[in-house]
Amino acid sequence: MQLITILVVSFLGAGIVYLTGKFSGRVRDISAVLVSLAVVILVGLAYNQKIYTNFYSLPFLNLSLSLRLNYLSWFFAIIVAGIGFLSILFSLEYIKDYQGVGFYYFMMLFVNAGMLGIVLSADFLSFYIFWEMMSWGTYLLISYKGGKAVAAGLKYIIMSVAGSLAMLFAIVSLYASYGTLKFSSLASLLQIASPGYILFLLLMFVVGFGVKNAIWTLHTWLPDAHAEAVSPFSAVLTGVLVRMGMYGFLLIMYSIVGLSLLHKLGYGLLNFNYILCWIGAITIVIPTFTALLQNDSKRLLAWHGIGQGGYMVLGIGVATSLGIAGGILHTLNYAVCGALLFFVVGAIEHRTGGVRDLNELGGLIKRMPVTFIAGLAGISGLIGVPLTNSFVSKWMIYKTLIMENYPFLAFAAFIGTWGTILSVYKFLHNIFLGQLPEKYKDVKEVPLTMQIPMILLSLAIILFGILPGIPLKVISGIEKSFGVEPLSTTMFGMPKEIGELNLINILAVLLVAGIVVYLIFSLSAKSRRVNQDDNYAAGLFVPRGKYQYSARFYDQAYRIIGPYLHDVVDDFYYWLVGKSKSSFQIVRQIYTGNINTYALYILLFLTLLIFVKLGWGL
Amino acid sequence: MSLIYNWMYYIASGGLILIGMYIILVKTNLIKIIIGLNFIDTGVNILLVCIGYVKGRTAPIFSTSRINPTNVVDPVPQALVLTAIVIGVAVLALALSIAIKVYEHNKTLNVTKIRGLKW
Amino acid sequence: MRTRKIISIIILLILAGGFILTFSQIPFGKDKINVAHYYISKGIEETGAVNIVTSVVLNYRGFDTLGEVTVLFIAAIGLGAVLFTEKRVQKHASKSKDDKTKKASLILRTGSNLLFPLILLFGAYIFVHGHLTPGGGFQGGAVIASGFLLMYLAFPKQSINKKSLSVVESLSGLIFVGIGLFGLIFSGYFLSNFLPKGIPNTLFSAGIIPIIYIAVGFKVGFELTSVIDDLLGRGK
Amino acid sequence: MVNPSLLIGLPLAFAFSIPLFGLISKKIEKYIPIIALFINMVISFMLIPQILKKPIVVSIGGWSPPFCINLVVGPLGILLATLISGIGFLVSIYAVSYIKEEPTEKYHILFLLLMVGAIGIVLTGDIFNLFVFFEILCISSYALVAYYKDKEGTEAAMKYLIQGSVGSSFILIGVALLYGFFGTLNMADIASRITSANPTYLFITLAFLITGFGIEAAIFPLNAWLPDAHSSAPSSISAILSGIAIKTGVYGVARMVYTIFNANSILLFIAFLGLLTLLIGEMCAFRQDDIKRLLAYSSIGQIGLIIFALGIATSLGVFASLFQIVSHALAKALLFLAAGYMIYRVGSKSIASLNGLGKKMPLTSFAFTIGSFSLIGLPPFAGFVSKLSIVYAAMQVKKPVFLAFIAIALIATIIEAGYFFKIVQNLYFKEGKNLDKITESSGYILIPIAILAILIIVIGVHPQFITGLLKASARELLERAGYIGWVLGGT
Fold it and tell me: Which of A230-244, C200-214, D343-357 is predicted least confidently?
């Protein structure tokens, strides 16, 4: 009942918000916030409960739709609800000047509701239904801005439909073989299935979830979609929507197929998990370095979104207790950081009139201090600076890779982190540091409703960075439900058996170091404060316009690595589409417009029927 | 000889049908194509009558008492032919009226040139 | 074009083969009568019509005939719909030309005047006696339409009143359906022969058959007339 | 008990009386089809519960079945009759303000007769009568396609007429041969005697019948008329043609193959043909710039899916096929009606001209979106459930060939998604030109569109409304002994 309430509130809430929007914009805004807050509270209240309910039945297919709640679904549900709430809050000011605001709120809430449905469903049919609802809702939201977003939306939905059809294929074949779609029953029924069939299933699901989670070769929709969507929705996209794929991976690999079966798939190095790990590693390296080349702030973050997804896939691919926990924890951590960074970009966009080009921004630190701090927290989180959340999850992933003797994979993960550091530094620097362009002189800090989500998320980064035990407790519950040996954790990190990680110690060390540094700096000579506009270059007046050394930041690096990072996969897809278009053109010419030819077709068909019958005795 | 006698009507009906089809396949004049349709129609009607015919029997009209009920042909195909003819006429009339319109718009009856709609 | 001819001939040869194979299973001129035995043996008794074809057409398979009437109606209406626009335009244009070009000869005009009532009478005879002799509503209607065609030939400028045509058409159609519905009311079956059968071989026999045939005769006659009228490019 | 012959008799009477009403007032005419089809709809709804208990066999004229024409109102018949009268009713409401070009009176007569033909086809139990009703449907649709009398319309009607009458000649040949073989025209009677003839030679007859009905059903090489006719007809007629007329062709094929001939050997071939039709239809639709032509090609694709499911020939397959018939009929009627009015407002058929209409005609565009999502097969719309059933039915037979087929069918769905999503984006997210004067559709246009959209959602969310009837219908097609038993008595 509780789960049904959550879904009903979130779906009906979306409708109600849309309807109230017809009367008053203000009421609509308030009710949108209230609905999303109510969902957060409802999900929060459901913590640590185990629920299973049937909510609908389709007697003609002998199927019933059901919902369930366990640690896994609660973990994702709270991320969905939380990020959803914050993005709605952030949207209040951001979206004000757009057309069709009612539609926007409706779709935001609808997509959130769809995602809640995905994580709460207990059988594949309801999973698929909510999945598709989320997909088309997302498509509408991505295209919402018009212009370039239209192409991005189309690209997204085509890839998404292709993925979900692969998934449908697998789901229906499951149903045809076993007569049930319940996760729990399938989990036991599949234990006696042939490895070939399991591999086929996993392959189909990997395609389906991989499109969403943007693993390499299926990732090409993501940069466009993230860049062109409105920023609050980009936050939802990168933080939670894309991670539905992650949820799917966890569900199919560990909750249903199970670890013991997974290990039987393949021979030696050619086994499923190892290949998945490599896909994860490639997904880390290539997109992270591609991000380095981007000049569009959202596109840069989008490529990082792909790269961080690689860490998660790598983590769960290794399939040890620590690795899985690392992967899941990184999902949460990235959701926080990613959403925060997109909020930051959104705030910048909001104040500068939609500027995303990193070469045109700069020096906003004084003008938008809160945003700057949020951005700093976000990139620290993304990199995994100690005392931020991702430090823990990345540490866990590295540790797993080293413990399990995967040196190359570990190396790939490290390289990824370097790339991350390089490119997010560019991000932060080009926006906030350096010279302030003339035109942004009057830029002000964003309003409070936009600050709150950023502040909350920044706090969350620090909180989970110091107290990783909070999410890890839930995660060990998840692992227990997978039948994996649960990770033992403490509030501040890991116990000794695995390899000591105690963030209190680190905190203490860093605090001491920080105090020392501060003392040194405060004792050393004072630097003179200069007005931001007060820039002289060797005694010459600066030409108006851009004078910033950060324009084309990594120009040298481009020349070296640029050619290798060309997105061949994307080119391949475009080639495929082009080829199929031209082949459709050929097929189309069957319909010549000449009635004699059409009559010929009819008679050909008739004779073919007769001929086939008489010739081969059909 | 009896073979030809037995097959004559079938040959006529099948032949008419095939000739009609050939016209539709090969001729480019719209009116000729419509004539071809009519050929097929006529062929089918003959076929129907052939099927109902029984050698040496008379029409199923008992206007005089001399007619024996066992000595009449099958009345059903004749009834069907009646319907089929009327339907053929209806299609023909409509086809001609559309042909008039097509000619007005295209100034030609050559179907290879009336190809505004294709692909 | 050449290849098309060759292909079509090949196709048609295969088709001809198919026909031969099928016809070989349906011997010509043999007694294959199955269901129709019932009609032949019981027809007169059950329907009162001595023309078994008529009893099949109007009673046993009366529904087909209703459909057939409908098809003809559709053709007439469809023709009117398709040829609708240019009528008014042409009427103006043709008026001036008509005087010189469209004038029938005296012989034709006199002969038509003389023959027209006879043709109508003949047509009426055919459809009234549909249950007794070969003939019926369709044949009679066609004869009537030929009379009107003759009139059009003789007097090209005059035209029949379209409105009254359509009224007759729809009234006779309604009579047919109405009889069917009356049958439903009186005996529980659509189009059942609920009227007394009378003595076979007399004019007033066979229940609803003559009534329907009269309606059909009018309907077919006027529909074909309106088709002719439309194709001549005139009318209201 | 309501007599099912009223379903045909009443609209026929109304159609004949339209000219008479026209004498009274020109304004009444256009409401006659609404009244007639509404009565029809009510009658067929009333009949459904009875028929689910026991099918009704009505003889016309009062003789026992093999000797006269009879209506066999089984679940399949009533399902399709309800669908036809329902959609016809909605389209006739639409036509009240949509059809302005003279002679409107003739339009309404032809429209009503088209519906009579369609209902007759699905209800009749006599094969020659089937042919007659088929002709009623075809001839009235030829005339209606040419209704605008423009260059495209007449050309399309001409092509449709030639192909269609070749098809109906084939049907008549088939009927004649069947009569030659068995000496009877009652479908149940033929079905019970079918084993007495040599199946090889009988197959030629079946080939003629399949080709004949296949032309109306738009199976692949026979469907060249469809894009022309559907795109040039008035939109209300396109909705009927796509929603109903081609379904009657499918019904014809299904009746012949399943009930009469019991031709199980050909089913795989039919499934293959369906798949081919699906692929070709979607490929052609993808490249269209003309919205109506695009929808027409999409109809070809959907009909391919329907025929594919029909070829699966398990009870679930036929069920899914019928479900797809219902959901496609609703969605395609909706799409044509909505697109028709958009075209009317914009004045152009090109897809690009629909840009930005989402803001000017929000309700129409919204309905269009629902229709296209349903066709793609997205939940929670009706198309999802039907497509899911088809996929499941194909998987359930556990033959590798069907597995491959359904995989290809799913790939075709991606193509379909490609063009429909593009149109939806054009509606909402692209900037249009010269949209200032465009306003939302009027009431008569919106009511049918809204009802169809609601139906799509309701069936999508709660498919149980119709699944009972669909299951019974599937059983009717598959259990031919039952069908013969209803008509001839005994089993």
Answer: C200-214
Separation in Å, CA D190 to CA B51, B73, D179, D257, D474: 16, 21, 9, 13, 20
Nearest CA in chain B to A591: B119
Contact D231 B117 (CB under 8 A): yes
Contact C15 A606 (CB under 8 A): yes
Is the minimum CB–CB distance between D155 and chain B shorter than 8 Å? yes
- ipTM for the whole complex: 0.92
When pLDDT is averaged across residues D317-332 and rounded to a whole number, the result is 93
**Interchain proximity C193–D61, CB inside 8 Å:** yes
Could you tell me which chain C residue has the CA closest to the CA of D63? Answer: C60
* Distance, C-alpha C63 to centroid of its chain: 15
Output the average pLDDT for chain A. Answer: 84
Q: Which of D295, D340, D297, D305 is nearest to D326 (CA)?
A: D305
Best residue in C56, C65, C89, C228 for a mutation probing chain B (most B CBs within 10 Å) = C56
- Chain A residue numbers with beta carbons less than 8 Å from the beta carbon of B119 are 588-589, 591, 593
Contact B105 D150 (CB under 8 A): yes
CA distances for D354 relative to A98, D289, D440, D444, angstroms: 21, 11, 13, 21
Helical (H) or strand (E) element with D3: none
8 Å CB contact of D149 and C190: no
- Per domain, the residue ranges of chain D are 6-488
Residues of A in contact with C18 (CB under 8 A): 607, 610, 614
CB of A598 less than 8 A from some CB of C: no
User: DSSP letter string over A345-408?
Assistant: HHHHHHHHTS--BGGG---TTTT-HHHHHHHHHHHHHHHT-TTSHHHHHHHHHHHHHHHTT-HH
Q: What is the pLDDT of residue D325?
A: 93
A268-313 tens-digit pLDDT:
667 888 888 888 888 888 888 888 888 888 888 888 888 888 888 8
Q: Do D106 and C59 touch (CB under 8 A)?
A: no
Residue that the structure tokens 């004699």 belong to: A596
C235: confidence class by pLDDT, cuts 50, 70, 90: very low
Domains, chain B, in order of start with CATH, read 2-55+69-106 (1.10.287.3510)
Say if C11 is an interface residue toward chain A (CB within 8 Å): yes
- pLDDT band per the 50, 70, 90 thresholds, residue C202: confident
Residue-wise pLDDT for C54-107, tens only, equals 888 888 888 888 888 899 999 988 988 888 764 454 555 555 555 555 677 888
**Contact (CB<8Å) D61/C170:** no
**How confident is the model over A182-201, as pLDDT tens digits?**
888 888 888 888 888 888 88
